[in-house]
Amino acid sequence: MRGWIALSMVLGACGQESGFSAQTQVDAFAQAPNNQIDILWVIDDSNSMAAEQQQLADGIGIFAAEMDASGTDFHLGVTSTSFEATGGALVVGTAGEPAYLTKSDADYQAKFRERALLGTSGSDKEKGIAAGNFALQPSMVGPGGPNEGFLRPEAQLLVVYVSDEEDCSDNGAFAGEPQDACYTRMDELPAVANFASQLWNLKQDKNLVNVGAIIVTDKDNCADTNVWASQRYAEMVRLNGGFVGDLCQANWDNMLGTLGLTAVGIRSTFKLTKGAVEGSIEVFVDDVKVDEDPTNGWTYEPETWYIEFHGDSVPPRGAEVSVAYTVDPGAPDPVEEAATTGTI
Question: What is the dihedral of CA 231, 52, 200, 317, to 10 degrees?
């Protein structure tokens, strides 16, 4: 299988009067053809998540419709944010089914619903990022591991977090501490960029990794006051160019549909290899120029170096994408900056 890949070419353009050498970069990407993808849902099982687990279980058909229509070859697994209790093991069905589901399981949607309804007796320190990463480590997915066979070397990887709280992946720093430490001492938590790098190291091509989240994006707009907006899950998505959905929405259909498109290999975001000078960017899909437009074109996020396509401009499966731009020599690498400062 070919995932979407990035290639780059550097050209030099010299300014005679200033002596400044402006560097022109051309990055080339390929939208992945529909084939293999391994999908890991990391679901909060704390005491406030009953309704949200039910919404996910009820809406899995919308997510799955995209995969079914395109014949996606998927592995589908679930783990919880209660890292200490699960150790990253995938949830198995009550009938003793394997730890993950595949397209060959005729009733995989029903089996996923069972797994998604984890209950609400889990830890109040939600360590979703750490739990997801550990579930995918070689010791877990390799021979003899509890998640053996889930992660395929050539498959795309999609990790989706569902939580109404902040991530508290602490690498043991808050052991024995009350839940409040997750919020009052967030500066002591490992940088999210470090966890992103762990995911990328699982693949020869880090562009095969995608992340999504259904989280609280604005606590003030949530009817349930017993929630917390998550900066850390959102940052994990930002560093991977994925999709963030608002858990407080009454209807999850659009969110799950968008994640379903992601699961069949349709990406709307592509990270440039260098920071770009805004105004210098030209984008082509299959050699056809695409205009900058937040509705049916593309936009550029200078803080993350991502080009994002919108509306009808999202490149179809198998499309070739090229982006030409002038390099901004002063643009800091977003991952290196986050890992160095520990900021989110």
Answer: -110
CB 298 within 8 A of CB 307: yes
- What spatial distance separates the first Cα and last Cα of the chain, rounded to whole Å? 33
273 domain-assigned:
no
Q: In this predicted model, what pLDDT tens digit does every residue of 212-221 receive, in sequence order?
A: 999 999 888 8
Whether 61 and 175 map to the same domain: the answer is: yes
Q: What integer pLDDT is reported at residue 341 of this predicted model?
A: 43
> Are the C-beta atoms of residues 24 and 314 closer than 8 Å to each other?
no
Residue 136 lies in a domain: yes
Residue-level length of the chain: 344
- Cα–Cα distance between 202 and 179 in angstroms, integer? 31
Domain boundaries, position 284: 6-32+278-341
In a domain, 272, yes or no: no
Judged by DSSP in three states, 2 sits in coil
Whether 22 and 14 have beta carbons less than 8 Å apart is answered as yes
pTM of the model: 0.80
- pLDDT (tens digit, 9 = 90+) per residue, 48-82? 999 999 999 999 999 999 888 888 899 999 999 99
Distance of alpha carbon 344 from alpha carbon 50, whole angstroms:
28
